[in-house]
Amino acid sequence: METRSIKEDAIFSGDHSQSERLGEMSGTNQSDLSCVIAIERPAWRSRRAVAVFLLITISVVVFDLVLKSVSFRYVAGEPVILSPFSSDKPVIPIHDSVIVIPRLLNMQLTTNSGAVFGLGKGGRWIFIIVSVVAGVIIIRLFCKSSSGSLWFHIALSLILGGALGNLYDRCVYHVVRDMLFMFPGTGLWPWIFNLADVALVVGVCLILLITWRGERHRRMSESVAD
């Protein structure tokens, strides 16, 4: 039963090497299997895993908040002041978009009280609670994962960093600051978003990819065993 649980954890966390090593050890004695299990440490006991997780999380939060601050100071031609801890909706002057990459990415200021890409307007406290709960779950998933699950840790840190970046805005300004506008003038992408939104989406996509690859690897292993 112990071997099976560790295999499942390796598949879920994207650490296929761990699963393969356990498969190779299936015909060996219990002492050899114990050596393999001892080598695989939980992520929270690995300095490297913890360093990667914290570095990416902190970097996402810092870059997101810096971009928000700089954008709301310069993009509109005059500083847009958001009153900390005030529920008053900020007044953003009418302004032209700042072209970053022609026909691909502009910068245009807006705020929203919803979730990613402005979806789900209102419900500020609901989003704050969801963000806190999600943060706790992400940290628990990281601590329980294998120390060698690098891409799984990257995905979790991107999601956590994005959630914290927007959580800061909701707690301090009661709204989320957005400024990135893709495919301007085409109508292909109607949402204005921020760097935290990008980190959240990329992290979730990585989790889905890891899960899909893990399930695919599991089915292939079962077919070979049969």
How many β-strands, per DSSP? 4
What value does the Rg take, in angstroms? 22 Å
Spans of at least 5 consecutive residues whose pLDDT stays below 50 are 1-12, 19-28, 30-38
Distance between the termini: 19 Å
| Spatial order of the strands forming the largest sheet | 1-2-3-4
Overall outline: elongated
Rounded average pLDDT: 82
Q: What is the string of helix and strand elements?
A: HHHHEEHHEEH
Structural class: alpha+beta
In words, what does this structure look like?
The chain is of the alpha+beta class. Helices cover 60% and strands 9% of the residues. It has seven helices and four strands, in the order ααααββααββα. It has helices at residues 2-13, 16-24, 30-39, 47-74, 124-144, 150-173, 195-225; strands at 98-101, 105-112, 176-182, 192-193. The chain has a four-stranded antiparallel β-sheet with strand order 1-2-3-4. A hairpin with a 3-residue loop joins β1 and β2 (105-112). α1 runs antiparallel to α2, α5 runs antiparallel to α6 (150-173) and α6 (150-173) packs antiparallel against α7 (195-225). It is elongated, with a radius of gyration of 22 Å. It starts with a helix and ends with a helix.
